[in-house]
Design brief:
The protein has 253 residues and is of the alpha+beta class. Helix content is 23%, strand content 32%. The chain has a five-stranded antiparallel beta sheet with strand order 1-7-8-5-4. A five-stranded antiparallel beta sheet has the order 9-14-15-12-11, covered by helices on one side. Strand 7 and strand 8 form a beta hairpin. Helix 2 runs antiparallel to helix 4. The protein is globular, with a radius of gyration of 18 Å.
Amino acid sequence: MVLTAPGKKDYTSASDAFEVTCDGDVYGHDLRYESCAQLLKDKDGRLTGPQTFGRRESPAGRQATYPTPWRWSSADGLCVLDVFQTSQVLISENMGTLEAVAEIMLRKCVLGGKGQGSFATGFGRYSQLILTMSSYKPQVTCRGAISRVGDAASSFHALARFLPASVTERVFGVDVKLPWQQTGPSTTPGRRPLSVVLQTSPFAAAYRDTAAWWDVYAAVAAIWAMCGELGKGGLAEDIGHEKALTVELKEAA
């Protein structure tokens, strides 16, 4: 997945003069209409109206409802929608605007463009938000249970807000000690928070591999969409250059 921002138009206000560009070479030629349509239908339906976006791991990102980059995934994991931005400031945008732009991307590029992925620019304050729709092929197995007490989606959102998602590659097992674990805050009385565990596969030839935090975050988003929404934990495999890393989403002990 390429997260380098395409050249943005120099709009002077947060208008609806957005632009959608189909680009199968970068974002995939094999997007399924059914997967992407389901993604748009079910994406965070409980959050409506204006929401805030801020660059992840920045002061604005720590305040934002959606630290960028942020990913939504279809239930089968094959279609993903990413939002990121070209500035460090906190941006407010109506979720209805994102949904409208994504709907055009779906109709223009997935349906009309025969399965092409795409990117959209020209919305958000001073046109600083970028939306991409692309294909993804996670290797995810659902396992274990996630409590249905309270709002499980809020627990995942609370965890995902603080996960690193840099596209800079690292050697996990050297630069980052493994196993690595991060646990989200508790959002509902009576339920345990969610936790992410990153480690090398027991079947790997080496105890290290090169990947980006973005690869880890993308795997977690896929596990949530494919398993967490069904009340299950999950394991994503084949992460890294040598496919030696695994990521697990589960309830904290």
